[in-house]
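Consortium newsletter contribution from the modelling node. Members have asked for a concrete example of what our holo predictions look like. Here is one, prepared for the guanosine-5'-monophosphate complex that several groups have been discussing at recent meetings.
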Amino acid sequence: MNNAKLFIISAPSGCGKGTLIKELMKQFDVFLSISCTTRKPREGEIDGKDYNFLTVEAFEELIKNDGFLEYAKFSSNYYGTPKAAVDENLDSGRDVLLEIEPQGAFQVKQKCKDAVMLFILPPSIDSLNRRLHRRAEQSGETEEMIQKRLATAKGDIERAYEYDYVMINGDLDLAISDLKKIFINAKNGGEGLNDFSAKNMKDRIDEVLKNA
Ligand code: 5GP
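And here is the predicted structure:
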């Protein structure tokens, strides 16, 4: 029987999820979907590896041709998950990981009821603010863009209550270990790991939002 799972990870941009996902993929054979986007590449990003960087016209053509499992407009840019690669990998029995924001995550959940959703919280909005500023020094993002990302992050975090699992990316080693635990638990049917349920994490989500 094919037990391949579809995992969705959402986290505000600047939350450090990329590092965590890399660690997960060192241990597990998971296909990480490469999204399409119309945003400009940041320094060091490679077309076809980090994203497929498309023009708005090319992206809209793909929408028309039903090429996306989901897509969303986020911070004035399109982002979308190409459907074919996800289907191929799941059909061949390989787990698939989507790293997408909540609008897209819930679109996928509607279509694939067995998809498992994880939200990664920053330890605080303050720490996210600092990370975004640090990254902006390299990418040249303006203060206005950072503030827009922060506002979006707050909106995204409000949806964390609806996820299957919620964890915090504070201490890196702990976060890596938490992510692996969650992944293994989800693979095994999702029973018994209540520490990371949205219900049990409610106070932590409230706390992050209270200071937002
Ligand atoms: P960034 O511009 O920082 O790379 O990503 C911005 C946001 O877009 C992040 O929250 C990221 O998870 C999300 N994202 C990346 N790819 C996709 C995608 O294919 N679909 C959707 N809906 N969101 C995506």
